[in-house]
Design a protein that fits this description.
alpha+beta; 4-stranded antiparallel sheet; globular; 6 helices; 175 residues
Length: 175
């Protein structure tokens, strides 16, 4: 294993051991849309299961609708499964929290493209910069059965945005 693969493996293990965004709020009961003088936001929640291996996640996304473009205000989740699925959801949290939906769509599409390279990686420095820690999943593309593990949280995010009724969600780009 070369030094880069070791670094990537360590990033995945670190995120799996200390996942970011873990812990659903007490009121996480589903999808909500609120448009009042005080609030202009919506939330969606999705539960996804990887039937191949049993990994599962319940992910809630809160979206701020006050600006010109919707912005992911927060992503919270609970799940169980392999280190790849859990680490991928942790990295997802870091990449999309505080980001507008156009960028969320771009990140999601780029991550899916990375996993489709069969471990070769993307030959695009701007894509690598956009993905940050998600580049650690490059090697996952060599193992088709593990790709589903890495995409579990991303599928939950897309579904949660659909359920929240967010305009311009990544779902429109992945349909």
């Amino acid at each position: 294993m070369d030094a880069m693969e070791q670094l990537y493996q360590q990033v995945i293990l670190d995120h799996a051991k200390s996942p970011h965004g873990r812990g659903l709020p007490a009121d996480a009961a589903g999808s909500t849309a609120v448009a009042t003088a005080e609030h202009d936001w919506c939330s969606g929640q999705s539960h996804q299961v990887n039937t191949t291996c049993g990994d599962e996640v319940t992910l809630r996304v809160d979206v701020d609708l006050t600006g010109a473009r919707p912005v992911v205000r927060d992503v919270r989740w609970e799940g169980s499964g392999c280190s790849i699925s859990q680490a991928s959801i942790s990295v997802l949290h870091d990449l999309v929290t505080g980001v507008d939906l156009d960028t969320v769509t771009k990140v999601s599409t780029t991550f899916r493209a990375l996993l489709g390279t069969r471990g070769v990686g993307l030959d695009d420095e701007s894509a690598e910069d956009l993905l940050g820690d998600a580049n650690a999943f490059t090697g996952v593309g060599k193992f088709p059965a593990r790709i589903k593990c890495a995409l579990l949280g991303w599928a939950a995010l897309t579904d949660a945005l659909i359920l929240a009724g967010v305009p311009g969600s990544p779902a429109e780009a992945t349909r």
